[in-house]
Write a structure and sequence with these properties.
With 148 residues, this protein is mainly beta. It has a domain of 101 residues: Immunoglobulin-like (Sandwich), CATH 2.60.40. 9% of the residues lie in helices and 32% in strands.
């Protein structure tokens, strides 16, 4: 690779890794229709999205807790998309109260996986009437990581 320099190599790698780029596959153009917190359950995210071109064979939403402390349990997860739902509506379950999350969509079609940019989910709410729980570890050296 003479004459391309680091910038040329980076651009080449970016194009090579882009699903659909140069392969005859449709482009990976995502549209985020809506992302909100459920009004009924404030620790459930609701995401609706679409992908230009033919429908995907499968899809999932990958979500992560922003600024999670190392060792914290449940820092995120994956939500399978039921492609039969209008707007590919998907629920993100198991979110922590009053926290911020990011997510992206991964959709597979024609043997290629399209990955959306990262999006921000609105801050989750608090469950009304939920007690505040605090943990005091008597033997901190015996505690398993993520248990406090």
């Amino acid at each position: 690779m003479t004459g391309t320099g680091a910038g040329g190599l980076l651009a080449t790698l970016a194009l090579f890794g882009a699903a659909g780029c140069g392969s005859g596959a449709p482009p990976c153009d995502f549209t985020l229709i809506d992302s909100q917190i459920s009004p009924a359950i404030p620790t459930v995210g609701v995401v609706q999205w679409s992908l230009a071109g033919p429908p995907p064979a499968s899809a999932k939403i990958v979500y992560r807790l922003k600024d999670a402390a190392p060792g914290l349990l449940n820092q995120g997860g994956e939500a399978p998309v039921s492609l039969a739902q209008p707007g590919d509506r998907t629920l993100l379950l198991g979110l922590k109260q009053a926290r911020d999350y990011t997510f992206h969509i991964e959709a597979t079609r024609g043997g290629a996986t399209c990955v959306s940019p990262d999006y921000a989910l609105p801050t989750t709410g608090r469950l009304s009437g939920a007690p505040t729980v605090s943990v005091a570890v008597a033997q901190a050296t015996s505690a398993r990581p993520g248990s406090s």
